[in-house]
Each structure stands twice: as structure tokens, then as C-alpha cells.
Amino acid sequence: MTLLIALGFLLAEPLIFNPYNNPFIFNILVLTFLYAYLSSAWNILAGFTGQLSFGHAAFFGLGAYTAAMLWTMFGLTPWIGMIVAAAIVGFASFGVGLPSLRLKKHYFVMITLGFSEILRITFIQWHQLAGGAGGIGYGVVADSWLAFQFNTDKTPYYYIMLAMLILCVLLVYKMKTSKWGYYFMAIREDEIAAATSGINVVQYKLISCALSAVLTALGGVFYVQFILYIFPDGVMSLDVMTKIFLPTALGGLGTLMGPVIGAFILIPLGQIVNVYFTTTYGLQGLHLVVYGVVLILVSTVVPKGIVGTLFKPTTGRTERPGAGIIPSSAISVPLSESANTSQVGN
Amino acid sequence: MLLEETLLIQAIVSGVLVGGIYILITVGLTMIYGVMDLVNFAHGSFLMLGMYSAFWLFFLWGVSPYLSLLLVPVLFFGIGWVMEKALIQRVVEGGYLLGQFMITFGLWLAIENTAVIFWHLDPRSLARGAFQTFFIGEIVITYPMALAFCIAIVLSIAFHVFMTKSWTGLALSATAQNRASAEIVGINVRDMYALAMAIGLAMVSAGGVLLATFFPMTPYVGLYFLIIAFVVAVLGGLGNYVGAVFGGLMMGLIEGFFGFVVGPDIKQLAYLFVFIGILVLRPQGLLGRKEIRGG
User: For residue B249, which of A167, A332, B167, B229 sits 20 to 30 Å off, Cα-Cα?
Assistant: First the structure.
């Protein structure tokens, strides 16, 4: 019910606050939807399948660059750009996933980060077509759905992004109770047990990775149409990766609404701090300090995130998502208070 | 000697000399991973803070960087201990993987951007004028780099002696190998965690002070060297501090060679491909035994 009221408000919002008169609120809301969407997509791989990817900024950037280059080079509409971007990033995700999804834990994080850095440096060095470090600027054209540009009346951006977010959340909702979703979660809980039960672990990890990457790439296409400017550090850097995973971290890893709730808290906070302090005091980067402090606080105070803390899962296992299915207390000898609580890894 | 060859050897020698700094950065990172099962994303920020400490000590009070080398690591030892006890311990004990990345990522973001706010982005340098140099054959070597390399090697040897000869060092190794057994024989594992973090930060800050003598600094320098430290750690085997020495020198070699052959802009790509190749083909590192921690 609360959800419906919130949704109704969001649908009516551009009618109450005209984006032309309130560009600040409008921008915050669109970016909030965008990062809620991206974080939900990341959550499919990281939260439901248990593979913490730190390379999603690369998928985001690759999608954005694909559409941008098709538009500037061939004048191809970004709607077709979206399809091409999805195809390219889908293949790229197999290329990244095949070697890396066999690796465990920290190794997976580092190899995805490595791939992401490779792509970022490649685009910085790619001067001829991608504009190198300076990136690609769009020529502004008249508002049209074909060109995916709405410069005088920005309202369509709002509804497109909101629709993408709702579709993504619905997809995750359906996925949670589908065969795929159960397979993903089984892999997250215990890979060996999942393989023993007849799940092709590598195949379903790849599916999860591709799904998550393609959704991220579509977000990238939207982003470049909204900002109308793209450069490698703006779409592929670790700062972007932070904004992708932070909402999920705050809201709750592996929860349906966690990323959305997290984004609705963090992105407005960051934007307000950024705009207010940068313009008033010239403190560049303060919003990133705020994000850093939020991360430190969340990880020490509510490590399961807001949703994960408020709504305990009903499966009986409340702690340590991603750990083995056997509770650690059953296999470790409780020597002291710390021996029981601090069993690291498996 | 041909000019080409001289230049190539020159590039490789300079690369290996910088490799000494890589060892100091990576020994801490890899030991923290070995002991605590934690990848410290904030490690590069402490390198950056070490560099700025050397800069400000010199700029404000005229303290020579080589004197700072005695002061700064002590300070960072304290910071590491307190930070581990106050913050990171809670997360490590939860055994929650995302939590680890959140806290070290958060520290990295907070430190780096606070540095941006206070010190801005203009590069600073301790170097005044041209470096003094000496020649070996036709190879030019600058004094700060040679000295930094020697000090780094001495520190690494001292660290190795500490790890293999002292009770505390052996206790750290024991914790890294099997923490439950370490606890059984009476090692305070929590203190070992804090000690690993403290020593790691002391080493990386020493690396920062030495690096500051010949490398210009900006607040973003940390991330660049963090990626390098990952590559070095993986080259030698993550968690293996002896491997980090090998990896650091190897990395210097790779960087010097590719910097010369394909140019300084693309050398990053070269070592990142090496990084991915090793992770895929030999995740235990070139020196590592066939035993992957956390696997």
C-alpha cells in the first residue's frame, strides 16, 4: 500500500514540480531512479548470485559509449543503440565472466576491477573515435523521441527512467521466485551443494552476469542521453562503481527493495551536499567524503543493510549471506567467545 | 653499446629501482590479506598520506625525508592499530565479504576526498631542481631512487627477520596459516589482526615517504599505486609476503620494459593483462604453492 502511494506520488511528481521550474529536484529524482536501477541490476549478480563484481562501471560505460559512438558516427537512433549496446555488453560479459567466475571471493573482486581498469584505459587512449580522455560531446538537437533527446521539456527523461526502474524491480521480483532465481540463490549459498543438486553452476553464473551486465548497459545508454556528454573517467571510474554498489550496500544485499531504498537516501544526500557545498564553499568532493563515511558506518553498524536488518529472512538463517549452508557454529569448536563469532570465510 | 639498448636497460633499471617502493607498498597489503583475509582498498590512500606527511614535515619544519622515515611509520603504526581495533575488527569478525569491501572502500573514499578538499589537486613535489646522479657504465641513476631502493630492500630484510625470528612474527604467520589453531596455542588473534594492520600501514607509509623524494604527489596518487600493489601481490601470490618482494621487482621490470617498448601511456594495459593472466592461469601467484586461501 505504501508502495502504491509512493509510486502514485512519483508518477504525478512532474505535474506538481515542473522540471523547467525545478531543475534541481528534477535532476536529483532522475539520477536517483538511475542509480536505483543500476544498483538493482548489480544486485542480481552480487546479491542474489553472490558474486561481488567491481567491474560493473565498465559495462555501464561500454553501453554508454556504444550508443554515443553509433549516434555521433552514423546518426543511429539511441533506441537501436540500446539493442546494439545490450548485444555488445552481453558478449563482453561472457568474455569477462568465463575466466573470472571460476575465481572465489577476493579474487573475483580484483579480476573484475582489473577488467574495468583495462577498459577505462583503453577508452582514454582511443583518440580517433572515442575522443580519448576528453570523451564525446553530443550535438543538441530538437526534442524528439527518435533522437532520445528532450532538451526543452525534460519530462520524458523522468518517465523513461522511472519506467526502466519499475521494469527492473519487477524483473527482479519475478526472478526471485523463478527457477533462475532459486538457482542463483542456491549458488550463492553453497556452490558445491548447488552443483551436487544438478545445477550447472558456471552456466547460471554466466546467465546472472549477462543479465546484470545488459541491464547496466541500458542504464548507461540512458545516462549518456540524459547528460549528453561522456568521458572515460565519468562512466568507468571507481567513483561510478561506488555509486552503483553503495545503494545496495546501504539498503541490503540480496533484497528486492534494498537498492531502491538505498538510492532514495544516498543520491539526494550526495547531490544536495555536492551542489550546496561546492557552490557555497568550493569544497569539491565533499559528497564523496559523505559516501565514504556512510559506507564505514553502514558496514560497522548495519552490515546487513536497512532492509536486511528490518525484515529478517524467514528461512531461519539470519546471518552471513553468502556463507555455507551449515551454520559456522556447528562446525567450529567454540573455544572462546571470539572463536565462535569470528570464523572467517569457510 | 647501441643507443636503443642503452635506453632499454636504462628504462629497466629505473623500473626495478621503483620496484623497491612497490615491495614496501605490497608487503603490507599482502600480509593484511594473509592474516585477516581482508583486501585493503584504503591501502593506496595511506601511501598518499605518507607522501604528504613527508612533504609537510619538510615544508613546514624543514625535516629531511630521511628523518621523516623514522617518524612517519611510527605514527602510521598507531593509526593502523587504532583503526583496526575501532572499525575494521567489527567487520572482519562478521565474516561478511561485502562489509569488508564497504569499510575499506569507505575509508579510501573518505581519506582521498578529504585530501582533495584540503590539499587540492595541484601536484606537489619534494624535489628541488634536478636530481643528483651517478653513472654505472652508461646508465644514469638518480640518488633519491637508488637510496629509496636500498632502504626498501633493507626494510624488507628487516621485516623478513622479524617474521621468521621473533615470537610476534611467528605468531603472525601462525594466525595467517590457521587462526583457530593459533588461538588454541594461546595467540591473541585479535591483537594479531591489529598488529598486521599496524605493520602494514607503517610499511606503506615508509614507502610513501621514500616515494615522495622523487615522485610528484596528488591526492589521487593512491589509486594508481593501489592497482600496482594488487598486481604485485598477485604476481607473488596473495598473502605471501616473500612473494611480494619477487613481485615488486618483477613489476618494476615489466613496467620498465613495456614503458620503453609500447610507451608510458599503454604500459598500464600491459601489466593489467599480466594481472588478469595470472589470476586466471595461476591464482596462487608465480611463487605460490597450490593452495588458494578462501577458496
Answer: B167
What's the residue count for chain B?
A: 295
Q: What is the pLDDT of residues A167-220, one digit of tens each?
A: 999 999 999 889 898 999 988 888 888 888 888 888 999 999 999 999 999 999
C-alpha cell at A58: 565498465
Question: Is the confidence at residue A330, as pLDDT, over 60?
Answer: no
Q: Which helix (H) or strand (E) holds A229?
A: strand A229-230
The grid coordinates of residue A109 equal 573482486
pLDDT one-digit tens code per residue, B192-223: 999 999 999 999 999 999 999 888 888 888 88
Cell readout for B232 is 604485485
Stated pTM of the model? 0.87
CB atoms within 10 A of CB B56: 14
| B90, B105, B184 ranked by CB distance to A242: nearest | B105
Does B280 sit within 8 Å of A100, measured CB to CB? yes
SS3 helix, strand, coil % of chain A, rounded to 5? Answer: 75, 0, 25
Q: How far apart are CA B75 and CA A188, in angstroms?
A: 41
A318 touches chain B (CB under 8 A): no
Contact state of B272 with A111 under an 8 Å Cβ cutoff: no
How far from each other are the two terminal CA atoms of chain B, in whole angstroms? 50
Pseudo-torsion of CA A153, A157, A160, A162, nearest 10°? -110
What is the Cα Rg of chain B in Å?
19
Domain boundary assignment for chain B? 10-116+172-281
Query: Measured between alpha carbons, how far is residue B289 from residues B181, B243, B282 in Å?
Result: 21, 11, 10
> Looking at this predicted complex, what is its ipTM?
0.88
Amino acid making up residue B263: G
Chain B CB within 8 Å of residue A22 CB: no
B85: DSSP letter = I
Answer yes or no: are the C-beta atoms of B42 and B101 closer than 8 Å: no
Question: Between residues 34 and 53 of chain B, which touch chain A (CB distance below 8 Å)?
Answer: 36-37, 39
User: CB-CB: which of A109, A303, A336 is closest to B94?
Assistant: A303
Indicate the DSSP class of residue A46.
Answer: I
Instruction: Using the CB atoms, write b or e for A54-83: b if 16+ within 10 Å.
Output: bbbbbbbbbbbbbbbbbbbeeeebbeebbe
Q: What is the DSSP letter of B217?
A: B
The x, y and z cell numbers of residue B219, run together, are 591526492
For chain A, the distance separating the N- and C-terminal CA atoms, rounded to the nearest angstrom, is 41
Q: How far apart are CA A317 and CA A340, in angstroms?
A: 16
Chain B residue nearest residue A346, CA to CA: B294
Distance, CA of B250 to CA of A232 (rounded, Å)? 29
Of B94, B102, B112, the CB nearest to A295: B102
Contact B160, B242 (CB under 8 A): yes
H helices present in chain B, as ranges: 3-36, 43-61, 65-83, 89-94, 97-119, 143-165, 167-177, 179-184, 189-212, 221-236, 241-261, 267-281
Rounded (5°) CA angle B38-B183-B104:
15
B40: left (phi over 0), alpha (psi -120 to 50) or beta: beta
Q: CB distance from B143 to chain A under 8 Å?
A: no
**Hey, what amino acid is at A299?**
S
Collect all residues of chain B within an 8 Å Cβ-Cβ radius of residue A96.
Answer: none
